[in-house]
Amino acid sequence: MTPSQHPRHPETPLHYDRLDYSPLPQSVTFARRRAHRLLGEWGCSELAADAALLVSELSGNAVLHGSVQDRLFRVELALMPSAVRIAVTDPKGELLPSPRMAGEAEMFGRGLLIVREVADRWGVRELTVGKAVWCELDVGQRNGRSGFRQPERPCDARQSTGISSR
User: Fold this and answer.
1) Which residues are within 8 A (CB) of 105 and not within 5 positions of it... i.e. 6 or more apart?
2) How does 41-58 read in b/e, with b if 16+ C-beta sit within 10 Å?
3) Per-residue pLDDT tens over the stretch 60-69
4) From CA 29, how far away is CA 7, in angstroms rounded?
């Protein structure tokens, strides 16, 4: 999958969450756990593991590559009628991310490859200050791209109501 400039879904969110984090390694864990919990609360438990993985990878990149002293990074989650949208914004927009092949001995360098394989769409948006790296997971039966088992009851975002922000 290649990155695109804009998400496919211009829909109004059924649920929305946004939280800013300090650019510290433990913030990645907090963001991942929050994403997993929220997807469960929003009735999309079968997408929670994939969403948590994507939030973890994008947040890790924000901490490692997008940090600027005294500036936070932001994680946004939105449940749309047809997709879950994840966006991680950081203040450093000089170098836009792109997938690369990491060597066998390298500990880092595979995050965007994981995002590319798990997400249905992903991309980078340049901002006035910084950048936003976003991805989407389509609601309903997953096509097995991530290797996680098929859900017993697919998320039905159409049954969700209201917008929540924590």
Assistant:
1) none
2) ebbbebbbbbbbbbbbbb
3) 999 988 888 8
4) 25
